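User: Could you check the structure of this?
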Amino acid sequence: MVESSEYLGRRIAADVGEGLKHYPVTAILGPRQCGKSTLVRHLIKPDRPLLYLDLERPSDLRKLDEPEWFLMQQREKLVCIDEVQRKPELFPLIRSLVDEWEDNGHFLVLGSASRDLLQQSSESLAGRITYNNLTPFLWEEVRDRVKVERYLSSGGFPRSLLQDDPAVSLLWREDFIATFLERDLMQWDGFSPVTMRRLWQMLAHSNARMVNLSALGGSLGVSHTSVRNYLDLLQETFMVTIVPPYLTNTGKRLVKTPKVYISDTGIVTALLGLGEFNEIAGHPVFGSLWETLVLANLRGMYPRSELFYYRTSNGAEIDFVMLQSGKRIAIECKASVAPVLSRGTHTAIDDVDPAHTFVVAPVAESYRIKPGITVVSLSGLFAEIGNIL
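Assistant: Sure, the predicted structure tokens are below.
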């Protein structure tokens, strides 16, 4: 296991630092165990007094039995509140305090639920808070430490990826899933751990595909509305990513059902009982794992972009259409060192008419297939996109 002294820098660190300078409240949101508290420990300067409260620790939670009295005494400190979604009633109080104190950098809140689930923060702290999303490790953050094969099979969660023993890595991910189902899920009303596990496993088998809510509900013995609620919760807790279709006026019949991805490849492999790269290389989910990996990195590197997929009723398809800064970029994912595009992909590229098309594959060097289409590695993708944007 990598020692704690070998801290690996996170891409959003500078954004968090800027937020502390310019806003009274800065939020870091992301899935459990993705490194939020580690980032804070390495970000805060030793000359700045810090009060760290972990709301999963009963002793810290008790300090907030009288929250107004307690927090009023902390004006000279940066107050960091971890797992803040466990006590959303704090947000109106935080608003009142920062309005009274007036200057910036008073509160740093960490949460493993999305901005939409922290509705009170949006309502109470509008104009006073900036949000930053921390993902599991991005490839650009770890490419000098691990091989892409381990990154694909273990996923990006630090305690999974940085574990040298694949069996221990898999065990950690299995424990992570169990903890989410048996403890974290209990924060939200109306959800069954048994149903959620079955749904999660079904999604692992159909990862990166369009999902029929009614069919899933029939298999689970629940309504399609219940399936939608379960999917929404998985999305809001960063466990799945839903990619909508790109609906453009091409005059063709387009598929309009969203595609569902489990957000981390290591969680997919754990749900399927797969360990090392050799076990996934010949598995039917291999291609979808690579696609999931590309998606996770696109979302982490370009959090303000819009991501879609494109597919016609005749099967012409592009994995991702990315919109940012007025530019449209097509991205196709191929888990092959010698990628070949199908006729349908070429048709889809013509339909979408992007500024450029990138074929992301596990290749050593980038090369041009034809004008407007380039095969790139995962690292090369972001260098090339940077040139366009």
